[in-house]
Structure to design on (1058 residues):
């Protein structure tokens, strides 16, 4: 399968611009063939118009066909076989095992949404029947369900070339909702993006889905992203990446004549609190697990634990020694690209210049070939966090800061001072967790997910997942970008008043032919009305 | 009951500023006693800090207590008796019957949310149990539910002094969600606001709810509103009013260091389409009902039908004649205040200057005492709408524009050109509605509520209501500000991973003690886990 480097605009391979860019092999920091065309506003406009043009057909499509389409995307991705795995590994320096696991997760995610579409209750159907005799005024027949917003712009993420990229959770949930998708491919893995984009196109063609429901525009610069977010026919934006990038898109979308929602997941420091009893009982084990979590995938997870709070004392000293001993032998690993490597090195250098911030393992800031970096563990005291905002910002890469707290109050104060987080973790014995309910209650306001006695890396795709959190973890803390509830981002309610049965959407007719759960005169049921 | 003119800050009556303002009696355009203090940033800051301080107690409160509190607000409003009705009538010039009906609706709205809180399924509990043996990786125990956002700023609306004001749908749904509320009272009815504010305070005190969960800050200028939206502890904003006002709040909130959601309902033109068969069969009746809908409450409803589309021809001529005959004898009625009267007169004058826009009843632009205005019916052709954006903007007051369409294509084109609407209405015979499915499908993208053979004024408060719609009807087309789904605006999901039973919120424990509907390993059930 030869990569074309072209934009996938509906069913056409095309390019409006002439500039090109290449992916980088992060192992050796050298460019990879072929050249990819840099997308332009013209490419975006064509893609979005096609999306709008085929939106009506997508939203009117029955659940079997739409579900089948989403399911077939998974089949077509698997059918790419090793070509996809090899290209993804070459572009990201992630190991084969990781890419294969991520591919599995991506396909499972697609299957979850395919099942959800087929099951059908996601439309949240509600029926309040007429009461013509009600006094003082008769009650009309009212029925409501969720409908898709319209074309959605999806920004592929660099750190998950499959699961948060072209056919990732954003695309899967938007298509499930009935929204056409225009993806801006992440410039770190354009070959992977093209392969997956062609798989989606193939699935559409096989399932009789109009080609305009999916396009992929590639680009390294800002033009494609800006054109997408500004385009009047785009109705929502999904993004996973940096705070700077997510906020820029949010600001752009909010300044439109017609503002649109931006669901940007922008990472966080994912604080971990280790309570004294847990430190005493199993500090060494937690230290070992922490180092594994911090260095997993060269630390390039949104849920990487970047701040570890524990109470000052001999328990903490032992914990730090054990963590240092586990981390010291870890060799350098390749980051996804040169820009991330530079950012990591610069951020570490800045952290090391802060008084009272000390490395607990030897520092290797330069000297690695390609995009390789060494992991690092730092230590500081809680009171410094308040004075140095940099300590509370996400550090993307295999590093973490252990924060010593003088006492319980200082630990709670540090939790209170946290900004919004994707996750927050507490390690404690059963007894002390009960004693620290205040901490748990406090973290509920800070994070989208709270974990006990585990590590935040590893995000399960299921109904109960909340991968989100208050700003700056996301631009919309009311949303999740992982799990079945992610579909809600792309829906809006419509109420139908006094509609005759045949004019109603099938989900709202008296006869519940799809057997979905509905709220009927206030009662949840699968019965007919 | 004597009005104090003071701010109600938690349990205290206070004022930080010294400036005052008075309400206007719109019947006579004269000021009403007493003077009310103009709120300041200091008042707002005190109120928001109290709200934040009592948030934890409100969100931890059991459903019986929180539901009882919301229910008792309705009791306390009723206990105000005629004092409330008289003051509301004096400040708004709305008739006693209308105010009494609105009070009934306001109380029913509170009772709906009280029932919802007590029933409990609104938290959308989801449980995915652990699968320790799953391969390749064990699945952790994950449970998710919706939790409240934090303090909410509510802006009282001028046109519904009870139902969309201090204890209106925004306040009721925010309190139901567990969010403390700081209301900016609408300056048109400060006395009504103070009375209702005291009723809420009384209910809180009777139900053991901490006083900080509710404050009322009054003001005529921009200072209170700006201070509220900018306050870092405020987590969401609800507003009903003009496009200009709503957009200003949205822009302010989006520009905060931590952006927050703004749910602004900003009205719309609520287009009505009359298909040829309906025009032929019952044109005269539709004309009479239309005039009643347009002039109801001096046309001061967000759902007032401002644009009426029908096909050119003798049927339309007869329709216009009948509507004109019904409207001509309607005398002038008082608008809510002098600013609205001026706006209405100026907008009508501007419309009358547009070539091809003609009045079909005599025009009385000036000459009425107090804030009285005369209703007006205008006529134009569909092609002019595209050239004159003013024709497509909401005209707040008892006026409507009949738009003649040359043919079916022009009618569909006019529908396609519409901006977002709260409602869209179609009158048609059964046969022609089936023939115009394209129109219904098109309107689904434009409006939050679609009505057949009725009129949009009158918004039912129930589970199936969607009172919202794409921009510029609202700043968030994914939300509704009326009905039980309005609670969702103030919620965010939190996922609990590997929590021991006693540490989980009651709604997520294995034993379903509250008997709520939950999603248990993908299955909707009220059973224990």
């Amino acid at each position: 399968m030869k990569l074309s480097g072209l934009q996938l605009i509906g069913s056409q391979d095309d390019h409006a611009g002439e500039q090109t860019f290449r992916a980088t092999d992060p192992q050796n920091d050298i460019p990879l063939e072929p050249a990819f065309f840099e997308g332009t506003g013209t490419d975006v406009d064509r893609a979005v118009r096609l999306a709008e043009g085929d939106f009506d057909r997508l939203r009117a499509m029955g659940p079997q066909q739409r579900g089948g389409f989403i399911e077939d995307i998974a089949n077509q991705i698997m059918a790419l076989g090793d070509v996809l795995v090899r290209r993804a590994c070459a572009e990201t320096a992630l190991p084969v095992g990781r890419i294969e696991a991520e591919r599995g997760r991506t396909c499972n995610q697609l299957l979850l949404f395919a099942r959800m579409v087929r099951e059908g209750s996601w439309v949240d159907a509600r029926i309040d029947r007429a009461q013509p005799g009600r006094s003082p005024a008769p009650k009309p027949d009212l029925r409501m369900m969720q409908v898709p917003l319209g074309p959605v712009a999806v920004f592929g993420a660099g750190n998950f070339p499959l699961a948060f990229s072209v056919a990732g959770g954003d695309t899967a949930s938007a298509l499930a909702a009935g929204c056409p998708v225009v993806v801006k491919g992440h410039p770190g893995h354009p070959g992977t993006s093209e392969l997956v984009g062609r798989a989606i196109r193939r699935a559409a063609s096989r399932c009789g889905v109009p080609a305009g429901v999916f396009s992929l525009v590639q680009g390294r610069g800002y033009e494609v992203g800006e054109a997408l977010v500004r385009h009047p026919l785009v109705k929502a934006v999904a993004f996973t990446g940096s705070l700077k990038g997510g906020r820029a898109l949010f600001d752009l979308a909010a300044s439109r004549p017609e503002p649109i929602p931006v669901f940007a997941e922008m990472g966080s420091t994912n604080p971990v609190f280790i309570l004294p009893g847990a430190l005493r009982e199993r500090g060494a084990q937690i230290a070992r697990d922490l180092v594994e979590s911090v260095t997993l995938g060269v630390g390039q997870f949104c849920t990487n634990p970047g701040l570890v709070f524990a109470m000052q004392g001999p328990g903490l000293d032992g914990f730090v020694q054990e963590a240092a001993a586990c981390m010291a032998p870890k060799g350098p690993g390749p980051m996804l690209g040169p820009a991330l490597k530079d950012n990591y090195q610069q951020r570490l250098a800045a952290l090391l210049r802060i008084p009272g911030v000390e490395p607990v393992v030897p520092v290797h800031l330069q000297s690695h070939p390609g995009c390789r970096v060494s992991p690092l563990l730092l230590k500081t005291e809680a009171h410094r966090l308040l004075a140095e905002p940099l300590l509370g910002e996400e550090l993307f890469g295999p590093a973490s800061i252990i924060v010593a707290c003088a006492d319980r109050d200082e630990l709670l104060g540090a939790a209170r001072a946290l900004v919004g987080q994707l996750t927050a973790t507490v390690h404690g014995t059963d007894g002390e967790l009960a004693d620290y309910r205040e901490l748990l209650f406090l973290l509920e306001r800070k994070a989208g997910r709270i974990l006990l006695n585990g590590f935040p890396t590893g995000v399960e795709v299921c109904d109960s997942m909340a991968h989100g959190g208050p700003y700056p973890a996301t631009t919309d803390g009311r949303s999740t970008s992982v799990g079945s509830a992610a579909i809600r981002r792309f829906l809006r309610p419509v109420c139908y008043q006094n509609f005759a049965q045949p004019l109603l959407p099938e989900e709202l007719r008296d006869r519940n032919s799809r057997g979905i759960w509905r709220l009927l005169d206030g009662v949840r049921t699968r019965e007919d009305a």
